[in-house]
TrEMBL record:
E.C. numbers: 3.1.3.71
Name of this chain's protein: Probable 2-phosphosulfolactate phosphatase
Entry GO MF terms: 2-phosphosulfolactate phosphatase activity; magnesium ion binding; sulfopyruvate decarboxylase activity
Catalytic activity: (2R)-O-phospho-3-sulfolactate + H2O = (2R)-3-sulfolactate + phosphate
Pfam families referenced in this protein's UniProt entry, alphabetically: 2-ph_phosp (PF04029)
SUPFAM superfamilies reported in the protein's UniProt record: ComB-like (SSF142823)
InterPro entries listed in its UniProt record: ComB-like, ComB-like_sf
Cofactors (names): Mg(2+)
Keywords: Hydrolase, Magnesium
Gene this chain is encoded by: comB
Family: Belongs to the ComB family.
Organism: Leptolyngbya sp. NK1-12
């Protein structure tokens, strides 16, 4: 297994795809997707365009759909929800499909949706992702951060580091040190960032530019929630392009 970390979707190789691609948008799309599926949403369908989201979701009965739209951290007018995982409680989402479009995370998923296997990861479901990789051992794995409008983000990189750190620890006894797993230099950087901040992930999010943006929008509870590690045992997996369900 070779792991590659990319800070943004734009940095992924244009001419190839991995056996397994993992989208990361800790603040907040992939945290929201995992939370919605843990609360028994029927599925989560992602869109880069709000207009496309509205058009597709119109084909669903209002009692079977939820529209979630976010731009710049704020809820899009006309949507039922923004992009807060705290809104995805069982009484709201159970049995319904969440149609979601966000500033960065859904764009990342579009870039990798043609890979053989597509997963989403956040800190809250890190172990579920690691368990999948250990079970299936895909030959090449991309961990792709969503970043912020094409730029590096601390929170996505620290999540990539958290995944690799745990995976390397569990494979160390099999003679697979980090050096053997790493496919690019970014993997080492991500692990170093996680190692430095693993005991203060909320503090890291307060330093992150998007974390500060969300604090200005009074989303401190979202940051606290998204900074948790391994709080959900759920793995979102793509069953068809743009549609994610809970892996069995």
């Amino acid at each position: 297994m070779k792991l590659f970390t990319f800070h943004t979707p734009e940095l992924t190789p244009a001419e190839s795809l991995p056996d397994c691609a993992i989208a990361v948008d800790v603040l907040r799309a992939t945290s929201t997707i995992a939370t919605a599926l843990a609360a028994n949403a029927e599925a989560v369908q992602v869109f880069s365009s709000i207009e496309q989201l509205m058009q597709t979701s119109e084909q669903w009965s209002p009692d079977k759909r939820l529209r979630a739209g976010e731009r710049g951290g704020a809820k899009v007018p006309g949507c039922d929800l923004g992009n807060s995982p705290l809104d995805c409680t069982p009484d709201v989402v159970e049995g319904r499909r969440l149609f979601i479009s966000t500033t960065n995370g859904t764009r990342c998923l579009e870039r990798i949706q043609a890979a053989e296997t597509v997963l989403t990861a956040a800190l809250i479901n890190r172990s579920a992702v690691v368990n999948y990789l250990l079970r299936y051992r895909p030959a090449t794995v991309w961990i792709v951060g969503s970043g912020w409008e094409g730029n590096f983000s601390l929170e996505d990189t620290v999540c990539a580091g958290a995944i690799v750190h745990q995976l390397a620890a569990r494979l160390a006894g099999d003679g697979h040190p980090l050096e053997a797993l790493a496919g690019n230099d970014e993997v080492f950087g991500a692990v170093a960032l996680y190692t430095q901040w693993q005991n203060n992930l909320l503090g890291l999010m307060h330093h992150a530019s998007h974390g500060q943006r969300l604090l200005r929008l009074d989303c401190h509870d979202d940051l606290k929630y998204c900074a948790q590690t391994d709080s959900l045992n759920v793995l979102p997996i793509q069953k068809e392009p743009g549609v994610l369900v809970k892996a069995e």
